[in-house]
Every structure is written in C-alpha cells, then in structure tokens.
Amino acid sequence: MTKPVSSRPESFRTGSGDSPAPGGVLGPRALNRALLARQLLLSRAELSAYDALEQLAGLQAQAPNPPYFGLWTRLADFRQEQLSQLILERRAVRIALMRSTIHLVTDRDCLALRPVLQPMLERAFLHSASGKLFAGLDAPAVAAAGRELLAREPLTASELGARLAERWPERDPAALAAAVRTYVPLAQVPPRAIWGAGGQAAHADAEQWLGRPLAADAAPEATIVRYLRAFGPATVKDMQVWSGLTRLREAVERLRPLLVVFRDEQGGELFDLPDAPRPDPDTPAPPRFLAEFDNMLLSYDDRSRIISEASRARVFTVNGIIRATVLVDGFVRGMWRIDRKRGEAELVVELFEPIDDAVREELAAEGERLLAFAAETAGRRAIRFEDSR
C-alpha cells in the first residue's frame, strides 16, 4: 500500500536546520524552500501586483489568464482588476522575452530586459522555420517597415504579415511578421489579457506604447541578479535555461565577488545573492495552486527542487502546454482544472499520489478560495479529488 504524503514527506528530506554556510551543500528541500520564499509561496505577500511582478521577474503568459492565477496564489487580497488596470495603464506589458516566450512584466522590466535578451531572440528566429523563409532579406528594412505600420495602429500578426507582404510579395507573410516580432519589441495591447475580455492578440511597438526607449545597457549582469532574486540559488546552466541566453559563465565570473556560492548534491556550483532568503529546509509550506506555464517549472536545468521527472512527464504535454499544478509541501503533487457547465464550476484536483487527511483538508480550503476567485458568479461551486494510483 502506498504511504500517504504528509506535509513533510521523507522522500524529500535532505536534513534539518538552517542552510549551510557558503561552500556547503544545498539539497532539493533547501533549494525548494529558498525558491518558495522568493516566489512568495510560503505565505501570501502584502505587495502590490506591480511590485510582485518585479519580484518574480515577470510571469510567463502564453495564455491570457494564467498570470491572474499566478498573482492570486502569491498575494493577499489580490483581485483581477488590479492586474487588468496595470495593463490598461501601460504599467504591465505582455511581450516576448525569456526563452522567446510571452511574459507579463512591468514597464520597467520590459525596457530593461528586452535588450539583454535580443541576441537570443534573433538566434531563435534565424534557426526557426520562419527564419529560413526570411533568409536573404534586409532585417533593418523589414523592422523599419513594421514600425511604420504599427505606429498607425496596433495589428495582429496576420494583419501585420499581410501588409508587409504588399511590399515583399514573394515572401511568406507569417515569416515577415515573425521577423518584426524579433527585431522590434512588440507589446500585446488591450483588450488582450484583460480579465473577462477576449479577442486576438494585437501588437504595438513597445517603445511607442510606453513612450520610452529600451535601455541602452545590454550586458547580462543585472539580469542575472534579477534571476537570482526570484529563483536562486542556481547554477550557470539554470540561468541559461531560464533566459535562453548562452555563454553566461563570463558574466557570472564578473559577479562572483558579489555572490555567495554553495554546491548542489552533484557538486555543481550554486550562485546566490548574500542577502536573499534561504529558509530552514523544514519550514512549513502550505498547499498552493500554480497556474499553467508557471515559471517555477521552467527556470532550471535541474528541476528536482520543485518537480520530479515522473511528475514532469504528466504536467508537460507534447504540444507545449504546461498544465496547472498543485503544490503539497512545496513540491508538485498533482494537477488542477476548473470545469464549467451551465452556471456551475467544479475544481477537479488530480493527485499523483495519496495525501493524508489533514493536507487534503488544507488543499480543499485553498481550493474553495480559488473557486471564489475564478468563478465568483457561478451558481454552484464544487471540488472533486481524483487520486491517481
């Protein structure tokens, strides 16, 4: 018979007591608690949505609604309109950044991060199918044409491609639009990503949208510090997986005098900021519901601090979807979804292994709060547990 998971499963224990001094070994549990503290998941933070976005170095936002759930699970008294208003006020921006995926970031981070990540975006484009179709064209000319079109009005990718194809009729419209996305910082504009609104993603030049230019500094050091503040301690490979950048070792070496260094259980160097939180590995972690595409699952080469390989195979789909997950004692122990039908909303929690009754009660209470947030107007709300074996 499988032993139920308690709030502190033995399978993830790496010892007790405070984190070791620099040079010591940090196991998965110590790294997990450091991650949860920085990701505002040990307790809900009394922060504004804007400040939380900056602490988290943004939220992955391939779909419109996950950032709302991402902030709800991390912040005290968060309401949807708080994030919607930031987007409407142009203080939060949806834009291609880390790993060439859409992220929701503050206006300041949009302008600061994009120049650092530009080489990665260009490399990813040139190696893509669209990049091969674009070969031979003058990138600055296409970028300038795209800027001119977007200065008139926001455009969807298909609209932008069609208008560019009027000038380059022999070229694939989708490849032309993808080139502009690569060489021009394109912000997705409202009503995209406003809670309760729909519609295709329309784009504007982020510099025009925000009324300010991109930062002049494209050196990666400040971005590495931002990553460690949100996700550390971490290896150089972890930093590269999160950002999509390569050859960060030299930048880390320049930062080394300002950092503290630990070791993982394989002997790899884990870099961190001296003043960043590294809680006791046995610090209690309440159950939490993570949104789809949560960056915690995507920002490391070694993801054992948050998800096992067996769980990862169930959460990551072959078509690139990262399912919404359940944290029990800080680690992924299941997935969740909300089924809606005829004015009813049911939260379905699929657990990967049994949990004890006390944890199930905590998870159910958290699930009720989730339903109240996500389906406030539903005539009936319910929770159903599906235990996997």
Structure report:
The structure is a single chain. The chain is of the alpha+beta class. The chain folds into three domains: 23-40 and 221-272, no CATH class; 49-210, no CATH class; 288-387, no CATH class. The chain is built from 15 helices and 13 strands. The strands form three sheets. Strands 1-3-2-5-6-4 form a six-stranded antiparallel sheet, sandwiched between helices. It is globular and about 65 Å long. The termini are close together. 43% of the residues are buried. Mean pLDDT is 93; it is low at 1-17.
Range of strand content? 15-25%
Write down the domain tally.
3
Low-confidence stretches: 1-17
Largest sheet: 6 strands, antiparallel
Helicity, in percent? 25-40%
Order of helices and strands: HHEHHEEHHHEHHEEHHHHEEEHEEEHE
Number of discrete helical segments: 15
First CA to last CA: what distance? 10 Å
The overall strand count is: 13
Q: What global shape is seen?
A: globular
> What is the spatial order of strands in the main beta sheet?
1-3-2-5-6-4
Mean pLDDT: 93
Rg measurement, Å: 22 Å
Coarse structural class:
alpha+beta
Topology:
Elements: H1 28-38, H2 49-55, E1 59-60, H3 66-72, H4 80-88, E2 92-96, E3 102-106, H5 107-126, H6 129-134, H7 139-152, E4 155-156, H8 157-165, H9 173-183, E5 186-189, E6 202-205, H10 206-210, H11 221-231, H12 236-243, H13 249-255, E7 260-263, E8 269-272, E9 288-290, H14 309-315, E10 325-328, E11 331-341, E12 344-351, H15 357-374, E13 380-387
Parallel strand pairs: 12-13
Antiparallel strand pairs: 1-3, 2-3, 2-5, 4-6, 5-6, 7-8, 9-10, 10-11, 11-12
